User: Which sequence fits this backbone?
């Protein structure tokens, strides 16, 4: 199936607008004990009260808080607990620093993929005394990165070629005695 590059670009722009306001928050980290415990405490709500609001055992709330602090709580559980505290769970995926946009993530990823490809080729060529040289190598990386991004080529995010189909094993012939 062919990738619709124009649709991807449009989708990227739409998501960019939603993600952009969240960028300043990426440096903020959750409180060490987790948001559930921090918000519950800030609201003056004890764990027994929250358990009653959720219709669960007190020990369940303690487990939720422990799970969240360990990064193992489900979004569904967080959402229910947030609602019980009259809060709303809000989450987003934002580009890692230093990238400020999804476009920048793609540019960076394309540059890395191109660097890997050109380095492998240049290494082979140097073995035959036909290396590209630093300047030509940099040009090749730039050109290849632009092409990988424009084509949204599978190698942009690593080798995504389908694994070769495995031949079905033939059943062993059995001999009757």
Assistant:
């Amino acid at each position: 199936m062919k990738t619709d590059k124009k649709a991807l670009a449009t989708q990227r722009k739409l998501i960019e607008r939603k993600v952009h306001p969240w960028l300043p928050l990426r440096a903020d980290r959750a409180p060490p004990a987790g948001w559930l415990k921090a918000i519950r405490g800030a609201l003056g709500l004890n764990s027994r009260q929250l358990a009653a609001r959720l219709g669960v055992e007190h020990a369940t709330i303690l487990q939720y808080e422990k799970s969240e602090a360990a990064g193992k709580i489900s979004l569904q559980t967080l959402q229910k607990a947030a609602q019980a505290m009259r809060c709303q769970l809000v989450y987003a995926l934002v580009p890692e620093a230093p990238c400020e946009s999804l476009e920048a993530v793609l540019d960076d990823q394309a540059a890395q993929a191109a660097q890997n490809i050109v380095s492998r080729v240049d290494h082979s060529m140097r073995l035959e005394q036909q290396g590209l040289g630093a300047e030509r190598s940099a040009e090749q990386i730039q050109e290849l990165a632009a092409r990988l991004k424009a084509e949204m080529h599978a190698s942009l995010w690593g080798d995504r070629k389908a694994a070769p189909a495995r031949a079905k094993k033939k059943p062993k012939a059995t001999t009757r005695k």
The chain has two domains: 1-26+95-156, 31-94. The mean pLDDT is 83. Residues 31-94 form a domain with the 434 Repressor (Amino-terminal Domain) fold (CATH 1.10.260.40).
